[in-house]
C-alpha cells in the first residue's frame, strides 16, 4: 500500500455570538482536516494545521509521504519531525501538521487491519472515562452572571469538573 495523495481542508463556522478566552476573542470555530489517500482505496483522516489554503502539509511533507508506505508510521513520523525540528518548527504549525498526518496514518492502519486504533495501540484498559464540561467562555455584556448560570448548569447535569477560561480582560 502506498500514499497517493494528501489534501487539506479548512472548515469554519461563524459563531452567532463571539466569545473570549485567555488568548483573545473569536468569531468563528475553525478546524483543519487532512485527508490521506492510498493506492488501495483506503483513506485516512486527521485533524491539525493544514495551512490557509489547505496545502501546508503537502508542501512541507509531500515529497516524504507521497509514494511511501502509510503503515511505516514510525519512520514517516521521524522524517517529518527531523524536517521541522531543525528549523525550530517542531511546535506550533509544524507540530500540528505532524499530528494531522499521524492521526490520518493511524486511521489508515486501523482500516487496513480491520481494527480500532485503540486495539492497534494495545487495547482498551477501561470501558468508561471521566469527562468534564468545557465552556465558560467570556461573552460581551454577560460577565459574570451568565458564567455563573452556566457553571450551575454543569453541576446540575452531574459533571464533576469544569474547564474555565481565565486570563483575558473581560469586556
UniProtKB/TrEMBL annotation:
Molecular function, one GO term: lyase activity
A Gene Ontology BP annotation from the UniProt entry: amino acid catabolic process
InterPro entries in UniProt: DgoD-like, Enolase-like_C_sf, Enolase-like_N, Mandel_Rmase/mucon_lact_enz_CS, Mandelate_racemase_N_dom
SUPFAM superfamilies in UniProt: Enolase C-terminal domain-like, Enolase N-terminal domain-like
Coiled-coil blocks: none
Keywords linked to the UniProt accession: Lyase
Boundaries of every Mandelate racemase/muconate lactonizing enzyme N-terminal domain copy: 16-122
Domain of life: Eukaryota
Name this protein carries in UniProt: D-galactonate dehydratase
Native species: Geodia barretti
Upper lineage: Eukaryota, Metazoa, Porifera, Demospongiae, Heteroscleromorpha
Amino acid at each position: 500500500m502506498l500514499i497517493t495523495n494528501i489534501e487539506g481542508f479548512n472548515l469554519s463556522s461563524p459563531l452567532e455570538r463571539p466569545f473570549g478566552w485567555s488568548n483573545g476573542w473569536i468569531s468563528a470555530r475553525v478546524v483543519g482536516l487532512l485527508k490521506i489517500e492510498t493506492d488501495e482505496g483506503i483513506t485516512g483522516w486527521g485533524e491539525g494545521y493544514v495551512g490557509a489554503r489547505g496545502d501546508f502539509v503537502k508542501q512541507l511533507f509531500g515529497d516524504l509521504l507521497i509514494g511511501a508506505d502509510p503503515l511505516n508510521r514510525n519512520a514517516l513520523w521521524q522524517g517529518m519531525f527531523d524536517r521541522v525540528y531543525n528549523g525550530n518548527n517542531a511546535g506550533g504549525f509544524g507540530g500540528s501538521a505532524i499530528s494531522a498526518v499521524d492521526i490520518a496514518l493511524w486511521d489508515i492502519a486501523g482500516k487496513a487491519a480491520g481494527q480500532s486504533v485503540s486495539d492497534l495501540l494495545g487495547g482498551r484498559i477501561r470501558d468508561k472515562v471521566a469527562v468534564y464540561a468545557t465552556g465558560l467562555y467570556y461573552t460581551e455584556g454577560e460577565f459574570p452572571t451568565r458564567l455563573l448560570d452556566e457553571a450551575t448548569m454543569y453541576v446540575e447535569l452531574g459533571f464533576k469538573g469544569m474547564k474555565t477560561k481565565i486570563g483575558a480582560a473581560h469586556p
